[in-house]
Amino acid sequence: MRLHVVPTPFYGANCVVVLPEEGEGPALVVDPSYGVTSEIRRILDDSGCALAGVLLTHGHPDHVWEAAEVASWGTEADLGGPVPVWLPGPDMYRMDAPLGLVQIPPPDLGLPEWVKPTSLRPFPAGSVELVPGLWTKMVPAPGHTEGSALFIAHTPLTVTLEEPKGPRVVHASPVPEPWALSADVIFAGSVGRTDLPGGDETQMRHSLRTLANALDPATVLVPGHGPLTTMAEELATNPYIARARRIG
């Protein structure tokens, strides 16, 4: 797959546009935050790929704000409405008022009024072909929010970082490899905060310990904030994972 990582002005959240390995085909947009819809549109237009779905890794506002807008760009074949917007089930309630539920001041960005996606649905269990050619599995990892999760896949992978000076390829593997959207669970050298409503430090430790034991160390992690990393790097250097493995 080809991943385009687009850092956003909303708390620096990463939006990810997932394209087929080559050529035109269906695309998935992950965590469409505020301030990058024009970049998302450009990537889709340049690739010739049509939007087939939106994935929200969790229900915090910096990861969901433009979900309704982006979903409206495509049409679900069976229903004729916006493309599906998937979200882990435990975070569905957050979509009624995502900004109010975090109980921290919003950034001074002139945010438009929140619009709840009409095609919202809970992420299904098991390995799921969200868009043709992309099979992914949700691994629940509560702690940052009740519904926080990783989304794992195994494909050839090229990751391009969209920077102000232009796009830059930051990772490329022509052979299939494990990779994961690690959302706000695992960052490079850190983890998601647990002090917001719905967060739980004990749950986060348990999630990190489980992931440390379950994920292939070769897994490339595409976080919800900050640069790419690997599970091997985080096992070796991340103090939060080390603590979780020590005390659970």
Description:
20% of the residues lie in helices and 34% in strands. It is an alpha/beta fold and 248 residues long. The chain has a single domain, classed as Ribonuclease Z/Hydroxyacylglutathione hydrolase-like (Metallo-beta-lactamase, Chain A, 4-Layer Sandwich). Strands 1, 2, 3, 4, 5, 6, 7, 8, 9, 10, 13 and 14 form a twelve-stranded mixed beta sheet that branches. Helix 4 (201-214) crosses helix 6. It is globular.
- Assign the CATH architecture: 4-Layer Sandwich
Distance between the termini: 34 Å
Q: Low-confidence runs (pLDDT<50, min 5 residues)? A: none
Residues in β-strands, percent:
25-35%
Bulk shape: globular
State mean pLDDT (0 to 100 scale). 95
Number of H/I helices: 6
> What's the CATH superfamily, by name?
Ribonuclease Z/Hydroxyacylglutathione hydrolase-like
Number of domains: 1
**How is the CATH topology named?**
Metallo-beta-lactamase, Chain A
Report the radius of gyration as a whole number of Å: 17 Å
Query: In this structure, how is the largest beta sheet organized?
Result: 12 strands, mixed
CATH class: Alpha Beta
Q: What share of residues is helical?
A: 10-25%
Q: What order do the helices and strands follow?
A: EEEHEHHEEEEEEEEHEEHH
Q: Which structural class fits the helix and strand makeup?
A: alpha/beta
Spell out the blueprint of helices and strands.
Blueprint lengths: L1 E6 L6 E6 L6 E5 L6 H11 L2 E6 L5 H4 L2 H5 L13 E3 L32 E3 L4 E5 L2 E7 L8 E15 L2 E18 L2 E2 L2 E2 L9 H14 L5 E4 L5 E2 H7 L1 H9 L1
Parallel strand pairs: 1-9, 3-4, 4-5, 5-6, 10-13
Antiparallel strand pairs: 1-2, 2-3, 7-8, 8-9, 9-10, 11-12, 13-14
